[in-house]
Amino acid sequence: MRFKAKLALEQVQLLCNLIGPISRLSGSASSSSDGAGGLLLGSSTMGIGGGGTVIYLDPERMRISARGGTGGGGGSDGDGIACFSELTTRGGIFLEHRIESAAKDVILFEIDLAQLRLALQSVLAGGGGRGRKRSSPQALHNSSAADGGTDEFVGSLAAPSVIVMKLAKRNGGLPCLCLDASCAGGSVEVHHAIPVRIMRADEMQYHLPPRISMPDVQLELPPDRPLKTVAERLRTISPHVFIEGSMAGELTLRIDGDGASIRTFYNKLVPRFEDLKSAPEGEQDENDFPARCTLKVDSKKLNACLHWQGTMVLGRSVEKAVLCMVENEMLVLHCMLNPGEIGFFTYYVPVHFLSPDQID
């Protein structure tokens, strides 16, 4: 088994922006650690891999499959949410790569995505962790060598131009995903090793996206009116949000409380008619009202699937985001990266059952 790839700085930034929000779905302890006292590589108290995330690699694709609430840190806002991402490797997320295995060149491993996020952030900051003084490593191996530098100097280094990502064994044969970078003309080297659990390639069948019915409503989210800001405010007011969508290009976020009801309206959205649930052929009428759908979602889950709007801008790094509503089954948010050939990521959010009399 062999995996080694080179990434440019912008590819590392894209990967960091993508996995950052996904890593917050699980309640892994390392996702919230920030500073000294983190677990060290090989510690007996640390779960190898973990975090509920698997990464699939083959010569053409990189897939990330995560499920919220499966980490070791208890409950989280992402409980019950599934996220699946697929990235193009050749000419996409890697400059060059080599992927080989006995399983038809497929590699599958489990990893704590929060640890990978911390490593990528450190590499982007030139090894200094966003310009802060270097502290103890946080659930990953982090070594660097500087010629006559100080902690403050290391924190302000320019980020490297090329980063190497590979699978290797560390600390007596422990499999790790390693990130190696050279900064400041080679005077500083940054090395990270994140423990992983190697899995059988055929286990990917248990980490594929959930099977769902055809959507009742599909709407493109507006690039100039992010839902994240509204969802954050509604979360502090009510534990549940009603999402009402219409193929007329209308979307409403509603909360109902004692003596008060709050509604936020979005109009002039672009409806997507492909792969949409429709009336049987011969029963369609040009005077039919546009299809509508109402979903009841936990407000914290809605907020969790919109975290990406804090790191990626819709209309720039994300080309399009489509909200798919499946009545009494699922809320799906499908986002295409820009350019679209790079890949996509999709959130699957569970909903509460609504009887007909609960739907206006």
Structural overview:
The protein has 360 residues and is mainly beta. It has two domains: 2-207, DNA Polymerase III, subunit A, domain 2 (DNA Polymerase III, Chain A, domain 2, Roll), CATH 3.10.150.10; 217-280 and 290-358, Proliferating Cell Nuclear Antigen. Helices cover 13% and strands 37% of the residues. It has helices at 9-23, 113-124, 151-155, 227-235, 299-304, and strands at 2-8, 53-57, 61-67, 82-88, 96-100, 107-111, 141-146, 162-170, 174-183, 188-199, 217-220, 240-246, 250-257, 260-266, 270-271, 292-298, 318-326, 330-337, 343-350. The strands form two sheets. It has a 15-stranded antiparallel sheet that branches. α1 (9-23) packs antiparallel against α2 (113-124). The longest helix is centred in the N-terminal third of the chain and has 15 residues, at 9-23. It is elongated, with a radius of gyration of 22 Å. The protein starts with a strand and ends in a 10-residue tail after the last strand.
- What is the alpha-carbon Rg in Å? 22 Å
The CATH H-level superfamily of the largest domain is DNA Polymerase III, subunit A, domain 2
- CATH class call of the largest domain: Alpha Beta
| Number of individual domains | 2
CATH architecture of the largest domain, by name, is: Roll
Order of helices and strands: EHEEEEEHEHEEEEHEEEEEHEEE
How would you state the average pLDDT, rounded?
Answer: 83
Query: How many helical stretches?
Result: 5
CATH topology of the largest domain: DNA Polymerase III, Chain A, domain 2
Poorly predicted spans? 29-47, 129-156, 281-286
Distance between the termini: 56 Å
Helical residue percent band: 10-25%
Rough outline: elongated
Number of strands: 19
Fraction of residues in β-strands: 35-45%
Category by helix and strand content: mainly beta
Largest sheet entry: 15 strands, antiparallel
